Amino acid sequence: MIPRRKKRLVWVLVLITGVAVSAGLILTALNENIDLFYTPSELVEGKGKDLRKPEVGQRLRLGGMVVEGSVRRDPETLQVSFRVTDIGPEVTVNYTGILPDLFREGQGIVAQGVLIEPKVLQATEVLAKHDEEYLPPEIAEAMKGIKHVNPNSADAFPSSSEAEQDSANDSEGGY
Question: 153 or 46, which is more confident?
Fold first, then answer.
């Protein structure tokens, strides 16, 4: 082989090897730093066509509604434990820190953390939904069928005419 062609071939092989190694390192870094989104049903039953479940120790984000009556606070520390559900199973979330002001039972949340047991997430961050009308597309799709009362809607509180009628009934000897 001609020395000039041999030199070009070596440079092409070095270039291809360098690109392959760089792509491999980038994919490895992305895989380690990605936080996949799961709903409680997907966490327990699996996600996708092959029903793939996350492994214990995996970082992920979990979104759903806080179950009524499930919030447990340690009076001595900032540790909080609560359950999250969508339309299926419940998943326990443990968190140490100050919860957002909008956090409450029946509220939609997204918790980010590490799965420490198949149904227990140790959260490093808890985000509460800030608008009663908006749901992220993933949560809205997963939560079809759950009744969520919008406090801004007419059904949540009686209208002023209904309230006036109730007070008129009270003054006329109603109950």
Answer: 46
